[in-house]
Amino acid sequence: MLASHVLGSIWYTAAISRQFSCWKSECAKEKARFPACLPKYLDCSTLMDVDRMYWLNNTNVLLNCDPRNNQASFRFGMFAEAFTSGVGSSNFVRKYLYCLWFGLKNLSSYGQNLTTTTFIGETMFAACICIGGLFLVCLLIGNMQTYLQSLTVRLEEWRVKRQDTEEWMRHRQLTPQLQERVRQFVQYNWLATRGVNEESILRSLPLDLRRQVQRHLCLSLVRRVPFFAQMDEPLLDAICERLIATLSTKGTYIVREGDPVDEMLFIIRGQLESSTTDGGRSGFFNSITLRPGDFCGEELLTWALMPNATLNLPISTRTVKALTEVEAFALGAEDLRFFASQFKRLHSKTLQHAFRYYSHQWRTWGACFIQAAWRKYKKRKLTKELALPESLYDHEDDDDGYLAHPASQHRESLSTDSPQSVQHLGATVFASKFAANTRKGVKQKVQFAEQVDGDALKMPKLFKPKEPDFL
């Protein structure tokens, strides 16, 4: 395109130059005539001159220099198209596009359609067009051949690698499901990297250059993670230096509940499902979706920030599974331990709050804590509502007197009475036992109702995650 622009502009400028050369030669032939042709008449500054207007009405210069006049002795050759097509009198946009088209047409055809005269400059210009077109086509073919060769080499390497993988899977007698998952990962890895091993390229670079390249590649992506956005530049540079790009296909388990956590994953593209059963307890299940900007494996950060951390890696409390193809950055256990010991910024209160706010484990604990508190409040409220009728019933029994304590109030008086009084005493004792049994049955019903409601409202407990030692 650039060569077409240059060629078209040179062609139009040369055409104007040939037109002016014709005017000068014809003007020189009319010096002996009247009115004589003066060189200043060819200048636009004398456009409104009376003598020039008189000369213009009687001269043959314009007629003899018209490319459309077949009787004219002056030949324009390849430049005649600039005047016969009306380009010279067109506006700038049409003039520009036509010159660009002229350059493209003649470079692609090597100037085969050009009609030239014996003028040396015109012949040399046509030769340059032909040579330039050949050179550009050869350059294009060479670049395409180099690109195709490099692509072919990588495709051949990928084909051989895939063939070896197929033979290995058949030799190990993998199940069809596992074979399909392996094929998906190999295909996704090829589409993402095009067969280029980035780690080997980075390891071959000097340390300073490697840091700058990794900062350029990772810093903008790292800042998209809200937890990293709270950190300062030196810490971000150190994190970018140790980040490792990872790829995961759909259905891949990143970590399972109960397995040791050996890396902390920061999602750049894709979605993950994070679920927990709280150690396999029946009746408990919690699931969330992790999206770009989220992270998982926060147990490892808690472990790294402990002042007396053991050599044993922390146990995962959640199962993380890829819902789509996932691209993420991973930080290993030793890298997090190095950051915790070298950068005191990780121990700040700001990062502590950011960690708790963006950690889905802490969010789950907070949600369960609020639900447990609400259900406990509802349980107490229901217990008070059920206990209110019982208190009113006890108050009425206290007002009766004989039903509350009949034996203690009349035992002495009835001991000296007649046989009718003895019968009256037996009836009183029977009524007292009946009232006591009735009150006991009511209490048992209330307790049973509270137990049933408590079991219905009972919520599985989710223990609060261990807090990292930020001090």
Structure description:
With 471 residues, this protein is α+β, with helices and mostly antiparallel strands. Helix content is 60%, strand content 8%. The chain contains 16 helices and eight strands. Strands 1-8-3-6 form a four-stranded antiparallel β-sheet. Strands 2-7-4-5 form a four-stranded antiparallel β-sheet, with no helix packed on it. Helix 9 (207-222) crosses helix 10 (233-242). The longest helix is centred in the first third of the chain and has 53 residues, at 120-172.
Give a quick set of tags describing it.
471 residues; alpha+beta; 4-stranded antiparallel sheet; 8 strands; 60% helix; elongated; disordered C terminus
Strand/helix succession: HHHHHHHHHHEEEEEEHEEHHHHH
User: Averaging pLDDT over every residue, what do you get?
Assistant: 76
- Biggest β-sheet description: 4 strands, antiparallel
What is the count of helical runs? 16
Low-confidence runs of at least 5 consecutive residues:
401-419, 452-464, 467-471
Helix content: 55-70%
Cα separation of the termini: 64 Å
Note the overall shape: elongated
The number of E-state strands comes to 8
Strands side by side in the biggest sheet? 1-8-3-6
Strand content: 5-15%
Q: Over all CA atoms, what is the radius of gyration?
A: 48 Å
Give the helix/strand class. Answer: alpha+beta
